[in-house]
Specification:
The complex is a heterodimer. By secondary structure, chain A is mostly beta strands. In chain A, about 0% of the residues lie in helices and about 50% in strands. In chain A, strands 2, 4, 5, 6, 9, 10 and 11 form a 7-stranded mixed beta sheet that branches. A 4-stranded antiparallel beta sheet of chain A has the order 1-3-8-7, with no helix packed on it. In chain A, β9 and β10 form a beta hairpin. The chains are: A mainly beta, B mainly beta.
């Protein structure tokens, strides 16, 4: 069965970086784009960007451009999201999600990773 | 960037009642790229509807989606206890965006 398993919770100081992993299984890793979405406490969903695991092509949300980097490791079926220059407003649950093959919906989601930015 | 506005912010209904949730876009959305998600506390979002009106795998037929252009609707024909949650619409144009969500709560 399709699964996306994310790394555990992180606590970071302002100005630091965080790297969250998302290990995919149960499907052909390179055939499906992966998106990252975050959710601040009590707030809605914010799209961060996507990666094509086949060729590493990425598209980032404009407001995060320059601070976010998405990469992948095809040998382990894992995608990574790194966010730099962290500030308190980056405190959120971060989700990876697989995009359906022929449309733009996100059909499988990771369990979420809480990143807390605090001094 | 296409902005999505969901209304109402909160919908207070009783089990068995019909729920109608609205999603309005700031510019025309390709229907192929409009989806709806359900989220319960402490859980990841769950895909309900893709391509405006197609139910995702395992989604009961009391959930239906409709609309075109800038106006889209999610309808839950008869609310079950497990349907009380927050619902988000989502579109993909040059970038992916979500609406602000509608909370369906028990009256």
């Amino acid at each position: 069965q399709v699964q996306l398993v994310q790394s555990g919770a992180e606590v970071k100081e302002p100005g630091a970086s965080v790297k969250v992993s998302c290990e995919a299984s149960g499907y052909t890793f390179t055939s499906y784009f992966v998106h990252w979405v975050r959710q601040a406490p009590g707030q809605g969903l914010e799209w961060m960007g996507l990666i094509n695991p086949s060729d590493s092509t990425t598209i980032y949300a404009p407001r995060l451009q320059g601070r976010v980097t998405m990469t992948r490791d095809t040998s382990t079926g894992t995608v990574y999201m790194e966010l730099t220059s962290l500030r308190s407003e980056d405190t959120a649950v971060y989700y990876c999600a697989r995009k359906r093959l022929y449309d733009q919906a996100l059909d499988y989601w990771g369990q979420g990773t809480l990143v807390t930015v605090s001094s | 960037e296409i902005l999505l506005t969901q209304s109402p912010g909160t919908l207070s209904l009783s089990p068995g009642e019909r729920a109608t949730l609205s999603c309005r876009a700031s510019q025309s959305v390709t229907s192929h790229y409009l989806g709806w998600y359900q989220q319960k506390p402490g859980q990841a979002p769950r895909l309900l509807i893709y391509d405006t009106s197609s139910r995702a795998t395992g989604i009961p037929d009391r959930f239906s989606g409709s609309g075109s252009g800038t106006d889209f609707t999610l309808t839950i024909s008869r609310l079950e206890p497990e349907d009380f949650a927050v619902y988000y619409c989502q579109q993909y144009g040059h970038a992916l965006t979500f609406g602000g969500g509608t909370k369906v709560e028990i009256k």
